[in-house]
Hints:
This protein has helices at residues 105-110, 177-183, 272-281, 303-306, 360-363, and strands at residues 6-11, 31-44, 57-69, 74-81, 87-91, 122-127, 135-145, 148-154, 156-159, 167-169, 191-195, 204-208, 210-212, 220-224, 233-234, 238-243, 249-252, 259-261, 268-270, 285-287, 296-300, 309-315, 318-323, 328-330, 338-341, 343-345, 356-358, 366-371, 376-381, 391-393, 403-404, 424-425, 436-438, 442-444, 449-451. It is mainly β. It folds into two domains: 6-214 and 385-451, Cathepsin D, subunit A, domain 1; 233-362, Acid Proteases (Cathepsin D, subunit A, domain 1). It has an 18-stranded mixed beta sheet that branches. Strands 17-16-22-23 form a four-stranded antiparallel beta sheet. Strands 20-21-25-24 form a four-stranded antiparallel beta sheet, with no helix packed on it. The protein is globular and about 60 Å long. The N and C termini lie close together (5 Å). Keywords: Hydrolase, Signal. This is Peptidase A1 domain-containing protein. Belongs to the peptidase A1 family. One of its GO terms (molecular function) is aspartic-type endopeptidase activity. Residues 63-380 form the Peptidase A1 domain.
Amino acid sequence: MRLPLITILWAWSNWASASAHTFPVRDVPAVVGMELYGREISRPLMKRDTATVGADMTTYVSNFVNVSIGTPPQPMGMLADFLSDTFSVLTEDTHVTNPSCHDNRYCSLLGSYNITKSSSNGTKEVSSDTWYGSSYMVPTDVITVGGTQVNDVEVDLLAIGYPNWNSMGLSPENKSFPYQLVDRDLIRSPSFSLWGNTSESGGAGILFGGINKAKYHGPLQAFAFNKTYGTVSLPLSRFQAHTELKVPTNYTLSSSKPYMLSTQYIITTLPREAVLRMYKDYNISFVGWDGEEPQFGLLPCSRQYTENHTISLIFGDATISTKWSDLFIPWGSPDSERCEFLIQPEKENVNATYSGTIGTSFSNHMYMAINYNNAFIGIAALNENPGSDDILEIGDGPEIPDAVGDFPTSIVPYTKPTPTPTASTSTSTGLASMPTYMSGGMFVGVAGAALVAAF
């Protein structure tokens, strides 16, 4: 199967000396960027994830990037995953009984890695986190992102079969991909920005090490999160439903716990009491598992385009909105006359850490900048008609550029371990001239290398 064209905006340079409290301005900022793609995937129903009754398959939308692994390059799609810290790939292991790639939904869609066909594969000794502290060997290989090669990246080999899939781990753990880019002097801090509006033709993106001010309506509203929980979260005070010419209906959320941010699941879960009030106000019915309380809303699919509402989540001074029509998914089968509503009650007394999850129905409409050095996330509504790219590098200081928030006065930034793997670059044919970085943070004449991932 052929995945779409991925255009890589890439750049790096040797560091000039810069203050830890400023955002460096240089001709070529240290950023690595790639496009995101939305992909609908069918998978076996997991009761923990959804509450679809009477269906053994469900559809959800995730954010994917295209990369290649090894020498010669083996192209594949990867889930951009906030919940993982590993670079994980499906592999056809000839030493054990393992389904072939074309027999597996995920593998046939995203591709698999054959380590024996790569001349650049190797191994790396890794210290164990266990109490006895023994080290062990892990496989490594070159990961190519456009014209940039990231050498000696640890690769987690997965057997083909549910629930495994290819993923680029973006979690706060210091083994995740942003940290690997810092270790190889490709970006300055373990940070990245991500923006939505994903489709199979692209339009969304990730920019490691920087922000693109053209992609959102600023400034960014910044919030601290607890990165020891292993993922990114946001405080949410309320949500509202709005119909043209009518006063918005506000639904206050009483819980003080944050909400986990997801680039993987399409469903948004919020406190039960507020969601049930909305269901009642908008005539959304309930269904649930046998013997359990109602889990989610069900309504006629015909209401998807006959009603004009906007649903908004309120994060401090930032409002992230999605259309009513974007919150429907067919129930049971693609041609079903009934649809599942993609805002669902969070099951009570299950998660002691989070009040719910912000799914891709909303995260695809926000710009987010995440800095693991200071454990802050800045968010803003997307600019639907962005102009020329305006890129600022995220430095190793305590703030996020173009963001308003209660930042710490100082931090202890992440520093790469020693010794560190070397980094090299390769340039694809037809590479245009590199962009010029103007005073004030503007990228002029953006160009980059193009990589076609042919599956």
